[in-house]
Amino acid sequence: MRRLVLSLLLTVVSAAGQQSSADEVSRRLDLAFWESVKDSNNPSLYEAYLEKFPAGTFVAIAKSRLQELAGKPATDSGAKAKAQAKETAPAAEELDANGLFLKMQAAVGGAGQLLAVRNYHKVERFKVASFWGDSRSAPTEKTTWCAAGPILRERGTNKDFFDGKDMGWRKQGSRYFKKSDANLQANRRALYYEWFNLMLADRVAGTVFTLVGPYRLQIAGAEGQRAVFEIDPATFLPHKRVVERAGRDAVDVPVGVVYGNWRTVNGIKLPFRLTAELETMKEELTVEKWELNSNVDCGKLGSLPQGVVPGPAPAVVESKKNTMEPIREEPSDSDTSAEGVAMLRRVQEALGGAGRLMSVVDFQREFRSAGEGRKGPKSTDYWCVTGEQLQKVALPFMADMVTFYDGRNAGWVRRGGKRAPMPAAVVEESQRAAFDYDFFHLVLSDRKPGRMVTKAGPAAIRVSETGGSEAVIEVDPATYLPRRKVSRFFGSNKVSAPVEEHFSDWREVNGIKLPFRLEGFRRGSKYREVRVETWKINVGLKCGELGRLE
User: Fold this and answer.
1) Whole-angstrom distance between the N-terminal and C-terminal Cα of the chain?
2) E-strand spans in 84-189?
3) Contact criterion met (CB below 8 Å) for 41 and 72
4) Which of 452, 456, 491, 499 is nearest to 474 (CA)?
5) DSSP letter string over 483-503?
6) Which range in 21-25, 34-38, 65-69, 401-405 is most confidently predicted, on average pLDDT?
């Protein structure tokens, strides 16, 4: 066997002698030797590789193979030897994080094959679905990627280019735009998760590998990127990848991608089916083709048509800052309860009187909610004094979404004629809504068992509930109409960031004053604005059967 390897090396050296670079000769020798031993179960061959190339490309894999084969007799690489290797493969907990990554890297083809990929062209089709069963297809997307960094994505007539560093442009229809700094930063983060970048993450300075469970490997980049792989213990192929990203309230929102339909292209195993999971949505992706090392001129990938100069990036609508001074809250105790109740009853009188408020048994409200400069779809709320809530949202180009909550601990969601139980996270959000989103329940809190009303400041009332959730209402001292509300919700797993709402545009409906405009703020910036088109009070909803309303 050693003579065979030596003969192979001499052949490669003879061919490499034509090359002008000594480094290129060394790289070819390294790769040729490794290709000759990588599928063997003979430890002496891996020892020979380490002796010949102590700083070679595949040193870490060779050492891992030696560890795996330790104590096993040298055998030919037949079916029996492979079966034996599988039976005695080390458990994930016996591998350190770096070793588990190298096993995954080897399973998809090995570092040598991955490093040989200079570019790829990928064609894929998306289908977006939600947990209630509806789906819609998206146009075919084409991606061209270069190892040097440039990447071009095309969807229909739209194009998106990023040079991998600090420049990019976007084509929408027939117009070209420069990318904003924020968009370029997002592109840099996204490039980290490209397939070949992740599979060669050990070549990137600052990458840290950590075991976070059996066959679960976390890869963390120097700039805070983080991906967790769940690895198949039989094949060491990645089964699932979870990327954690900051949500609106700085809470990590996991985005899971499940891999399937593995095929070999140019000696590398690639997934041809991916399913992305984000909260209640699911995105199915089918790859129609992968082309590796295709005829791509990476230096000209982002070239624009002659005479085309991208215009400035579209203006980013900045979130309006909260200009109101913080509510001057004061500690509350039992001594302030009477003052708080008295203040809340003045609010009730300003709204139309407790009698009228208590006579409301149902309402219907139509509104539009806009955020980040975009006008949102039309929504209709139906509410019953029993706590039942039903909301219909008219979505463009898709079936309407309907959600129902029974006022206690259950509900359902429907779209496209298919109905599914309400997820636990949505139930919890509905329970929160029952506490402080329902206007009539909130302003009648002095009459609801389990709620405490206290004075929170010179013109502020605190409403708290068993379990810790609370809302502080600031009133206009001249009219006693609510000006704003700050809510804090303590759920089963987390404490929400405070949400501040401002009320304005008060109008009278059935003798009751109601706000027709609401602005929502989180962490000092406005995240949404609600414009109510109609309030209808006591429309005759069948409370107790609201879930049957279609």
Assistant:
1) 76
2) 119-130, 135-137, 141-146, 151-155, 158-162, 168-172, 175-178
3) yes
4) 456
5) EEEEEE-B-SS-BPPPEEEEE
6) 401-405
Q: What is the pLDDT of residue 27?
A: 65
3-state helix, strand, coil in the chain (%, to 5): 25, 35, 35
Which of 360, 422, 376, 323 is CA-nearest to residue 529? 376
- The per-residue DSSP string of 387-447 comes to S-EEEEEE-TTSPPEEEEE-SSS-EEEEETTEEEEPPHHHHHHHHHIIIII-HHHHHTGGG
3-state SS, residue 37:
helix
Sign of CA dihedral 177, 183, 184, 186: negative
Share of the chain above pLDDT 90, in %: 34
**pLDDT tens column, 110-139:** 999 999 999 999 998 876 554 434 445 566
Taking the C-alpha atoms of residue 352 and residue 480, their distance in angstroms, rounded to an integer, is 11
Q: At what angle do helices 22-37 and 43-52 cross, to 10 degrees?
A: 170
Task: Report whether pLDDT(500) > 50.
Answer: yes
Residue type, 362: D
User: 375 pLDDT band (50/70/90 cuts)?
Assistant: low
CA 517 to chain centre: 31
Separation between Cα atoms, residue 267 and residue 317, nearest integer Å: 47
Reading the block at residue 119, the tokens are 């570019």
Cα torsion through 32, 37, 38, 41, rounded to 10: 180
Write down the residue that tokens 């539009």 correspond to.
Answer: 368
Exposure string for 267-286, b = 16+ CB within 10 A, e = fewer:
ebebbbebbbbeeeebbbbe
3-state secondary structure of 131: coil
| Whether the Cβ atoms of residue 265 and residue 292 lie closer than 8 Å to each other | yes
Contacts with 203 (C-beta within 8 Å, 6 or more apart), sequence order: 111
Who contacts 520 (Cβ-Cβ below 8 Å, separation ≥6)?
499, 500, 501, 526, 527, 528, 529, 530
User: Tokens in use for 266?
Assistant: 């140019």
What is the DSSP pairing of strand 401-405 with strand 411-415?
antiparallel
Give 225's contacts (C-beta < 8 A, 6+ positions apart): 189, 192, 193
